[in-house]
Amino acid sequence: MSTQDEELYRRVLHKDKDALETLYDKYEKLLFSFSYKMTNNHGLSEEVVQDVFMKLWTQKGTYDSSKGKFSSWLLTIARNAAVDLMRKKKDTPYELEERDALQTNEPSVEEMYEWKEEATAVREAMRVLNDNQQRAIQLFYFDAKSHREIAEQLGVPLGTVKGRIRMALKHLQTEMNRREGGKERHE
Amino acid sequence: MSDKRCDMLIDYFNGQLTDEEAKQFEEHLETCESCQAELDEWRSLTEDLPYLSEPVEPDTEMKGRVLSSIFEEEEGTSTDTGNKEQTVEREENMNEPALFQPKKKRNWAVWGLAAALAASLIGNAAFLTQWPATTTTEPEEEVVIDNLEQALTLQNPEGGEASGRASMVANNGEAQLVVQAEQLEPLSGDEAYQVWLLEEGQPVRAGTFVPNEEGTGAVTYPMDELQDGNWDTLAITKEPGPDSETPQGDIVLAAEI
């Protein structure tokens, strides 16, 4: 799967519109859903997706396969774009939407195979974490809150926030590894 | 290692720092191994988290809006697609420990570059016609044409077939550096051409491109990505990969600004 992405990426570097469209089709829903989880807003989520593919097309970023999966790279760009947009919109509050509004319960599209597999592993692992660890991850990663806000919301001293985040993430990783056992990661 | 600045790591990762603070932190990051390690660790430990997102269906017309706006922008015009607030482009590079770099404020000092280019480029008007300035109050759906601010001719200092042009273009108030080149040597493997702006020999990246089979290539780069600089030279080098932080290869094209 990764070699296919890399080939498409290479074609995008040569300004192949079909290749960009193929990548778009493959990752639109994952990127949109992730952006929505962060921003809670459809309009902002669309802006994030647009930003990601614009960067890809105009070659603002460079993907290096030795540094990780292509999908992870796209998701990192998406998170940065979402964080950016949320910061920009902070002063002019945007409308928070009903979370369930457009949610679907059928992620059973073929190209979402990878997503489903990842999702099962990470969801199960997440369930093992205690409430505080889950909240730490939500506040830190998805809400992208400030150091101070995270401390306040977790009710812990500023100096311990980093350690708590690290503990929560490590715990999650350990659980995921345990579930995957010796199984090869599919990428 | 218990530098006070290490405490800024979370706010850096989450885009909560002012530009000034982020700059300070990046200086710190360059020398602080523990912050670098922590950022790397966060990156790898959070890699799977996006998959926790519940599937949300984008509306069916989103694809058309997004792709057409990308391709139109590339062709030098942009129509209003409803996403008026384009996010400012910034470099995304997995080699850099920085996961988040706050946007630079639009940097009007870069227009100094435009002015400097103007001084050196009289007589180079053949390349592009100068459009009259468009007003900023465009009605919706109206096509906004880029304004060419300045252009400059690129040559190989050693002589050779390759040639190119660099121009400064304003589109919707965003300054873009547009670089085009022809008759470039073909690349192999991961090689790429990179554009640099230099100030007294200090290079700053300003775009990467891979030419087509005819050896023609182009790249645009948003000027507000760049910090203040009194650029004196623009150069294109052939690099072993698309993400060199400093030029590794030979200069294939250059121009004094």
If you had to describe this structure to a student in words, what would you say it looks like?
Chain A: Residues 121-172 form the RNA polymerase sigma factor 70 region 4 type domain. Chain A: This is RNA polymerase sigma-70 factor, ECF subfamily. Chain A: Keywords: Sigma factor, Transcription, Transcription regulation. Chain A: Belongs to the sigma-70 factor family. ECF subfamily. Chain A: Residues 23-90 form the RNA polymerase sigma-70 region domain. Chain B: The chain crosses the membrane at residues 108-128. The complex is a heterodimer of chains A (187) and B (257). Chain A is mainly α and 187 residues long. Chain A has 2 domains: 1-103, Rna Polymerase Sigma Factor, Chain: A (Orthogonal Bundle), CATH 1.10.1740.10; 108-187, Arc Repressor Mutant, subunit A. Helix content of chain A is 68%, strand content 1%. Chain A has helices at residues 2-13, 17-39, 42-58, 70-89, 113-128, 131-142, 147-154, 161-180, and one strand spanning 61-62. The longest helix of chain A is centred in the N-terminal third of the chain and has 23 residues, at 17-39. Chain A is globular, with a radius of gyration of 18 Å. The termini of chain A are close together. The model of chain A is unreliable at 98-111 (pLDDT under 50). Chain B has 257 residues and is an alpha+beta fold. Chain B has 2 domains: 4-78; 108-256, Immunoglobulin-like. Chain B is built from 5 helices and 11 strands; from the N terminus they run H-H-H-H-E-E-H-E-E-E-E-E-E-E-E-E. A 4-stranded antiparallel beta sheet of chain B has the order 4-5-6-9, covered by helices on one side. The interface between A and B is large, with 86 and 66 residues.
